[in-house]
Amino acid sequence: MAIDEQNLPELVKEVRRQLGISQEDLARELGVSFATVNRWENGKSKPSKLARAQFDSYCAKMARQGKLKLPGGNI
Question: Which residues contact 51 (CB under 8 A, 6 or more apart)?
Fold first, then answer.
């Protein structure tokens, strides 16, 4: 899944909305802090390469399970 850096905040919010999870829940799934997810959503920081890979992997897993549909099928 290629993340457009400018759309990352919206993407993170949309993933959480579709899955019905909090920032804290997503942070736990990715192995990062709540504050990290909050900064991503507010556009104050970008994920590291490792965190980005974990986010991509998590989104792909949720999409395979039919729990997540992203516009354009970017998974």
Answer: 30, 32, 36
Kindly list the domain boundaries of the chain, sorted by start residue: 5-68
> Is CATH 1.20.120.1730 the right assignment for the domain spanning 5-68?
no
**pLDDT digits 0-9 by tens, 2-33:** 556 668 999 999 999 999 999 999 999 999 99
- In a 10 Å sphere around its CB, with 0-12 CB exposed, 13-18 middle and 19+ buried, how is residue 30 labelled? buried
User: What does the alpha-carbon distance between residue 55 and residue 51 come to, in Å, rounded to a whole number?
Assistant: 6
Helix, strand or coil, per DSSP, at residue 68: coil
Neighbours of 14 (CB within 10 A): 15
